[in-house]
Design brief:
Blueprint: H1 3-10, E1 13-17, E2 20-25, H2 27-32, H3 37-42, E3 48-56, E4 61-66, E5 69-73, E6 79-84, E7 91-93, E8 103-114, E9 118-124, E10 128-134, H4 135-141, E11 148-153, E12 159-160
Antiparallel strand pairs: 1-2, 3-4, 3-6, 4-5, 6-12, 7-11, 8-9, 8-11, 9-10
Length: about 160
């Protein structure tokens, strides 16, 4: 077997549970777009929620109700779904910003974890979101626990499965 062919296989991973392969793909694909709740939990996905999705066939947009919070997605799945939003795909601001992103929520910072060059922030908007920003952005915004902020993310950043 050629080295190129071997490297092709090394570029892919498989997640198994109880002897069954649940997902095969590149590490990035499995990590960013898991196919199931088990895979999402296994690879440590944050911002993993269960909700009910309704599609607007005229616009191609899905509206997902997660505990009363309406999240907009570009997915075409409807019914009971899981969604995930990567923490680094979420913007945080001290005031509401005008943007093309369809998801903006006001909430309270409930936890701040210093990871050195980056900061992990928990924001409760009725459901809790993990947000990751640079330490410089954190300092520029003068963020602190208990502060009210806005989080924003694009509909295309919502992975639905």
């Amino acid at each position: 077997m050629s080295v190129q062919r071997l490297l092709h296989w090394f570029d892919r991973i498989a997640v198994m549970n109880a002897g069954q392969i649940l997902q095969v793909g590149t590490p990035e694909a499995v990590f960013r777009k898991p196919y199931s709740e088990f895979v999402a939990n296994f690879v440590g996905v944050e911002n993993l929620f269960k909700g009910k999705s309704v599609n607007d066939t005229d616009t191609g947009i899905a509206y997902i109700d997660v505990n009363g919070i309406l999240i907009v997605s570009t997915s075409c799945k409807s019914g009971d779904v899981f969604i995930s939003i990567r923490p680094e795909d979420i913007l945080v601001a001290t005031e509401r910003i005008e943007t093309s992103a369809r998801n903006t929520y006001r909430g309270e910072i409930t936890e701040i974890i210093d990871w050195g060059a980056i900061m992990r922030i928990e924001v409760d908007v009725g459901i809790s979101f993990a947000v990751v920003i640079t330490k410089r952005s954190f300092e520029d915004l003068a963020l602190r626990e208990g502060m009210l902020v806005y989080i924003t993310f694009k509909a295309s950043a919502v992975h639905v499965f």
